[in-house]
Amino acid sequence: MSARYLIGVFGDEHDLLEATREARGQGYKIVDAYTPFAVHGLDEAMGLRPSKLPWVCFGLGLAGAVAKLWYQIWTSATSWPVNVGGKPLSSVPAFVPVTFEIMVLFAGVGTVLAFFIVSRLRPRKKKPDVLYEGVTNDRFVLVLEETDAAFDVERVRAMFQQHHLIHLEERVDSIPRSLDEEVQR
Amino acid sequence: MAHVACSPLRKQLILGNKSYADVTHDVADLLDQKPSALWYVGMFISVAMLALGVWATTYQLMTGIGTWGLNNTVGWAFDITNFVFWIGIGHAGTLISAILFLFKQKWRTSVNRSAEAMTIFAVICAGLFPIIHMGRPWLAFWVIPYPNLRGPLWVNFRSPLVWDMFAISTYFIISLTFWYVGLIPDLATLRDRTTSKIKKAFYSFFSLGWNGSNRTWSRYETVYMLLAGLATPLVVSVHTIVSWDFATSVIPGWHTTIFPPYFVAGAVFSGFAMVLTLMLIARKVMKLEEYITLHHIESMCKIIIATAGMVGLAYITEFFVALYSGNEFERFTFINRALGPYAWAYWTMVTCNLVVPQFFWSKKIRQNLTAVFVLVALINVGMWFERFVIIVTSLSRDYLPSSWAHYSPTCIEVATLIGSFGLFFTLFLLFVRYLPVISIGEVKGVLKYGRVATSPTETIHTPVRKEVAV
Fold first, then answer.
1. What is the ipTM metric for this complex?
2. Number of Cβ pairs < 8 A linking chain A and chain B
3. What is the pTM of this model?
């Protein structure tokens, strides 16, 4: 079975926001939106849940801090205890700065790597297929899934046109088929 | 709500009524055009300075650090001054990218990319000095606690110098990560735009297949916020630890608890002076007047006034405490700074760091770019001398008068300092040539900030129009 998608293209962030809100309000299934910059409020409009990455950040930071604190105590007091200036071997206050740095390092770098993994970002040899030309420049795209036979393209077009729709096209899986051309024929 | 930003009370951040495509065009075109003659002049001077530095470094590594003016009494001087100076410069970049982000200062978007680049280049310059100072830089890896066949012999984790190594390395890695994450969407924009095959391959590789999906943007914003939250305490910790290199010793003039906040404020102060220097050059050379506006320059001048106040308070406090403490050595050190053989350096520092910034109270001066350029150059000089005064005056005359000694730099040390400036400006000029100097994505996000719809064809939604639409 192949899924059918309807792609609405807008020229302004507010148009996209309003169209997304209305589409979601009317019960259409929103697949994703594609924008040239982070549009604030779009997450709520699409109904996206907040990312769990803060927990990854917290966990990795904690792991880094614990590991580094242990490492400092182990090297200074167990592996080769050296008396420096008569200070206690396991002088925890003196271990705080490095523990902090390693916590930040693990949390920061780890969160970014986790972000790359969950968002499937990895170095590419070739330019990937972008959904619509200009989506990294000045076009805002909303993708709806045509969930059943009752999906009325013309109703959606009318709804999008209130929000200054620039272009509308239907795609089966990912083969583009321009509706505008069809209408002209 | 984003609509709130369209108030006539707010100042426009980006001038020239640009569209989204204009922003892409303006920034990306800079990379496609041949650079201006000014760029070549700048590059020529920078590379010449860098070559001088490379020569001086090679010479001192082959001969030994006896080529410096150091003696038994003054073991730290020019190199550590340069190290602290460069690290401080870097801090303004993190302040702009992280702290102003957390405070939702939208004007940062025009300058954050280049300020972050400045941070990375400044940290590279800073990191070179301790490594050169080791005398045998090929053994620099000994500062890393790795399992070795000498016991294993570990580093002393109670030493501020070890803390420093961890702080600077972490700072460098996190700054680089932050900068790169910010670059990814812009690299994708460039990838979809360029016609050059080589550039397309380069941008495709580094933009990691970014396609503008809002699910990715949503996570991206979360990650950006987390990195800003991590970088903010990090930047404070870095200069705090740098100040501990001094404060944990028992040298009069160094052994003070005021050092961490004093150093952090000084770092931000000097960093903003350097950001302004670079921004004034960049907006002129790259013709970015509509992006880096007078409003940006004025805002940064105001931060300079505030941090100059903090630095001034620290100068007065440490002098007062020294006089009031009843500690003879502490008192002598401070009187010696103001009236002793290095009095010229001390008064240069006071003039440049306390008197010069006061000119920025005047709106006329803040808007006169030549004046701003001269004043921030003087602040850079003043902040370099601050570190010189702290390090050299304290060491040259501490406890025993019989071991007092005078220090003056050799031409090798001066050449190394010039070389570090050469490295810094070479890297910066390469950056403005090959990467987007303005964060395209972030600027688009604030493009309509403070802009009032003037004609019905304007695509901005004023609240009135919104009601009609509903």
1. 0.89
2. 218
3. 0.90
